[in-house]
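User: Protein folding is very new to me. Would you mind checking the protein record under this note? It all follows right here:
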Amino acid sequence: MCGIVGFVDKNIADKKPVIEAMMDTIKHRGPNSSGELVDGDAALGFRRLSIIDISSGMQPIYNEDRSKAVIFNGEIYNFKDVRKELKKAGHVFTTDTDTEVLLHGFEEWGIEDLLKKIRGMFAFVIYDLKTGDITGARDFFGIKPLYYYNREGTFIFGSEIKSFLKEPNFKKELNKAALKPYLTFQYSALHETFFKNVFRIPEGHYFTFKNGKLSIKKYWDMSFKANNLSFEETVKRIDKSIRESVNEHSISDVPVGSLLSSGVDSSYVTAILKPQHTYSIDFDTSTYEEGTAAKMLADKLGLENTRGIVTKEEAVKSIPLIQYYMDEPDSNPSCIPLYFLTKLASRDVTVILSGEGADELFAGYANYGFHSHSKVIRVVAEDLKHLPKGVKYKLAHGLKKMPNFPGRLHLYESTAKAEEFFIGQAKIFTEKEAADLVKPEFEKSRSVKDIVMRSYSKVSGYNDEVKKMQYLDLHQFMSNDILLKADRMSMANSMELRVPFLDKEVAKVASGIPTKYLLNSKDSKYALRVAAERALPDEWAKREKLGFPVPIRDWIKTKEVYEKFRELFSADFAGEFFDQDAILKMLDGCYRGENDDRRKVWTIYTFLIWYKVFFIDGGKKPDVDPQVKVG
């Protein structure tokens, strides 16, 4: 696992110190070695994390006549098969790496056909030394990040935005349009990042930069189309695809560990992998006990489990460092346990498997229409789904207006049109609340509806509302939050995190599963849970999803944390963004127990910390080293 950086800029005479400074900024992604290429107006850089023999994996890697070079971040799991095909076509390999397969595959087939053949997680760039053309791509789901800046003759790309700060002609500027949507979604929800003119290469897309012009094109997307397989055959296919994927993802020259929570996703992966090392995390509070349940499973499977305990003091200390590594503000509280979990695992292993992606592919979220624990409500909701569309939507409108009663939300979200209520897994501030809170210069932005309709418009022909919601989450919440924090928190600790659920062969299986097998009166993610029973102890596959619970309410109600938050909320620069009286009132009320605005308070605090790190402190890495105890 590695980090890549590069730029094209004719106005920089000596490019070597610039590319080296950019590489040093992302050294955490690859602390073992580095490589660079400086040619004409271009410079490319690479930082390496060793999981194979160091001598065979040095980058850039060149083709036979050294006319092309590649830098690559990720893993190609089927590279040996592709390599055999390329060798038959006459290509000569100088290494045993998956990286070189990308270069020769590009030569042989071109970018689109190459991308059809490979299986993995990746962000790579190929540079043509004869023409100066640059071609790059990001993987199917967006597991690996890739950003770009293209302004006034300066083109920059890289794994992390912080490296751009070292390019002399990069203009660092806050994207004011990003703040208001962030307050609703909890993450950076626009294609343009919080840094003005810095954009993501979208998941499933490739780019070409030729003669100063940038072109971006989609090469893959998730397409849901229900098949006619029986439930039993569906379960068999799920289990087979996941076992094969875990097997592919576990290939490594170094030991592979597993992150383990109490939920079915990481448990299923762990039960198949059976690694020597598993890792779980808890906080020093009795509010949640994820680690205890994980230890129970590890014992049942005969595996070693290391349980970390994070104190309130270390957690709060970590926030500036976490936001530094994230590059953009992200107020998902699970960033904290994931940071400490990968830090814990890094003591023993370099590669870990995790369970991200299962909820999006196999319909695991309660917001897809699974809020009630009442079996009666679940059965009724299941029956209502079969009503004609017009009747069903009319019923939903009636339910929305009714006074609340047990099961109302479950019934409403089971009958309503997805576009009318669902914006993804996070909804912190309503759009009106966000607009009322920010200063006028931050009110102008894309509306929440515009943002989600980017995805909904592509599945407008779907008759299945759950599939619409899954599609939205794949392209919003998962790519911009879940996978981003997985990459950043693991790379912060120089760890390679692999996600076997997010494999294109698993996705093929998931895309054909009828919703009735996934979300029904029995459970969410039902078919996956039944498949997981083939690997897990009795009843374990049916455990309720918790999702890295974090005791932020407990923290904010302590005097020392409250005072720390209030100091930041009272700072002069906070008043540049927010109605300061309003945010202080919200914080004070949360501390005194007069409201439960913990997530709103956390979201504001996260942004202010991020802004301080990158715009007040100049993007300097915070000088802290939070520790996790083994319990």
In short: The chain has a mean pLDDT of 94. The CA atoms of residues 165 and 171 lie 8 Å apart.
